[in-house]
Amino acid sequence: ASLRTTSLQLSLRMAPGEKLQVGKGGRRLVNRDVPVIGLSHTIGLDGVLGGSGHWNLTELSCFRRFHLNSWGHIDLNGRGAWLWNQVPLLLLPLPPTNLSYVSRPGAFALIGDMELLADRYLMGEMAWDLNGKLLNRLPFISRMRWREYVAVRGLWGHLSHLNLTDRLPAGCHPMDSRHPYVEIVGGLHNIFRFLHVEYVRRLSYLDRPHVTRGGVRIRFSAKF
C-alpha cells in the first residue's frame, strides 16, 4: 500500500528579546534565556498534486531556560498536538522519539516505533544541568571538570474515537489518557571536553511485551 499527501503549513515563532549574531558563517544565537513559542497549523489538501486525504493538525511548542547562578540552569520544553480529523495510521502526529544509542535532547529514548498512538497529546521535558555543583566538591573528580545532568520527560495523550480502531499492527497501542508515559535521565557531560553519557529509565507502560526498561545513551557535545 502507498500513501501520497500534499499539505500546506503556516508557522509562527515568537521569541521576544532574542539576540542573534550575524556573520559570514550565518546567524548564531547569542542568548537562550528568553521564552520561545512556536505555533503551526497544517492542512492536508485532498486531490492537489496527487495528494489524498483532508486533515487539520495544530501544534504548539514552547521553550524557556532559567539560570540558577552556581547551580547551573534548567531547560523547560513543552509541545502539544491536536489532530482534528480522521486520518490513516501513518499520518497520526507522533511525539519525538529517538531509537538510536546517540541521545537527542527533547526526544523520548525508550518509546518504540509507533508504540504509543495518539491524535492529541501533550509532552514536556525538564532538564537540569547542575554545572558541576556537586561533582566539584569531590577532590579528584573536580579536576576532570565533569558536569552532572538530570532530566524527566512526560507524555500524556489519547487516541480519539475518530482514529480508534481494533485493527492495529503488532506493537502499536493507543495511549491511555489515565496513565502518562514517564522516563527519567541521569548523566554526565564534559567528559574529555566533548562526551555526554546518560542513563535513561522508563517508569510507565512496563507491562508491554519487548519493552526496554532502561539503557545508556551517548552524545558528543563540547562544553567549556
Précis, in short:
It contains 1 helix and 13 strands; from the N terminus they run E-E-E-E-E-E-E-E-H-E-E-E-E-E. By secondary structure, the protein is an all-beta fold.
Topology:
Elements: E1 7-14, E2 20-23, E3 26-29, E4 36-44, E5 56-67, E6 73-83, E7 116-117, E8 120-129, H1 139-144, E9 147-158, E10 173-174, E11 181-191, E12 195-202, E13 214-220
Parallel strand pairs: 7-10
Antiparallel strand pairs: 1-4, 2-3, 4-5, 5-6, 6-8, 8-9, 9-11, 11-12, 12-13
Overall pLDDT = 90
Shape: globular
| Strand order, sheet with most strands | 1-4-5-6-8-9-11-12-13
Structural class: mainly beta
Low-confidence parts:
none
Helix content: under 10%
Multimeric organization: single chain
Model description:
It is a single chain. The chain starts with 6 loop residues before the first strand and ends with a strand. It has a nine-stranded antiparallel beta sheet, with no helix packed on it. Strands 2-3 form a two-stranded antiparallel sheet. It has one helix spanning 139-144; strands at residues 7-14, 20-23, 26-29, 36-44, 56-67, 73-83, 116-117, 120-129, 147-158, 173-174, 181-191, 195-202, 214-220. It is globular. With 224 residues, the chain is mainly β. Strand 11 (181-191) and strand 12 (195-202) form a beta hairpin.
